Amino acid sequence: MSLARLGLSTDQDRLYRYLLRRPHAHPTRIRIELAMPDLPRVIGELRDLGLVDQASAPVAPPVAMDLLVRRRAGARRGRP
Predict the structure, then answer these.
(1) What is d(CA 50, CA 64) in angstroms, rounded to the nearest whole number?
(2) CA distance 74 to 21
(3) Least enclosed by CB within 10 Å: which of 17, 41, 77, 79?
(4) What single DSSP character describes residue 51?
(5) CB under 8 Å to 53, separation ≥6 — which residues?
(6) Model confidence pTM above 0.85
(7) What is the pLDDT of residues 24-42, one digit of tens each?
């Protein structure tokens, strides 16, 4: 399932999935392999969502799904 269905942008989804496969990849390698010049911005967005920690390690997929579903449900009720 694409996490974009739960509100992630295409870049956020691609980066999260990449980090699941290569959690210790160097940012330069990530930027090149994903052709993502805005990597710092996108990783910051994932941090803000709670999907990666300060070391840029991704949370487990079930945790990510739970966070995104709760966020989406809150947005439907008028909460951020």
Answers:
(1) 8
(2) 30
(3) 77
(4) S
(5) 47, 59
(6) yes
(7) 999 999 999 999 999 999 9
